[in-house]
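The material for today's practical consists of a large collection of protein records. There is nothing in a record beyond a sequence line and a structure line. Backbone structure tokens are a discrete shorthand for how the chain folds in space. Nothing more is needed to start thinking about how sequence determines fold. As an example, a complete record with its sequence and its structure tokens follows.
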Amino acid sequence: MNKKKSLIIGSGVLGAYLACELLKNDHKIIVTSRRKRIIYKNYNFLNIGNRVKFEKLDIKKKSEIKKIIEKHSPNFIYYFAGQSSLTKSYKLKKETYESHFIGTKNFLEVIKKLKLNIKFFKANSGYIFKPIKGIISLDCKLSSSNNPYIKSQKKTFKLIKNYRNFNLLLYSLIFLQIESPLRNKDFFIKKVCFHAKNKKKIAVGNVDTIRDYSWAQDIAKSIYYLSKLPPRDIILSSGIGISGREILDIAYRQKRLNYKKFFRVDKKLVRKNEDEILIGKQNNTNILMKKFKFKFSTFGSKLIKKMYNQK
């Protein structure tokens, strides 16, 4: 029996964890990066660097996309490329737009032209929705934010819907916060855990906002199960919220410290006009529980402690 082939666009954190999950399920993995010298550290950290084939790809060039698809004949394409910082997107408007909308559109046009039966998954963000009392579901209206990242992802979300009319097998994967040991040290939870471990004081933004953090391995497993279902839009998250203040408390308590003595609010780190609460509706992933008995296992205090205990 021939192995399934998965093409992962982007060599970032989520792609590495998905590659790990797919390898467990006997997939052949090809990972692309725009860089001339691809960074393998995420894959080496997971001990899978020698089991993955790496290729260079410019997502702005349809000729390169066509070439790599014809070379590998993938069954699945996971588009995880793209500038993902809301803050940086103001300075990187063109890169943000091209890496999400233009890159995705190029893939869809190639798949459509070649009449390929490939399942295509586009990573997107919960920020494209207007929450209802802090809760996000597919019933929510789309955000009216002028943030370049949100605007690009919102346009890409609509693009996926439109191209389904051509009978393409397209999925929109809506994520909220995803955590793992591979996260950059500037990400909030990793930053807090580092400072707590070293008994250092920390400057933070708004500590009373509540967010929905999911563990990367849970997300990867949910994507694998989703690939067995027909095309759809889906919000993948734990559905459990935790505040910045709670995160500080849990992390510093691991050293038996009172977090109130170790943090200060830096106004420069406070995001303007951000939602107080942003949590995925708990029934967003009911289909995965019903079909595969899958549910998120790591969130809230358990997630913070796992991040804290990582070396």
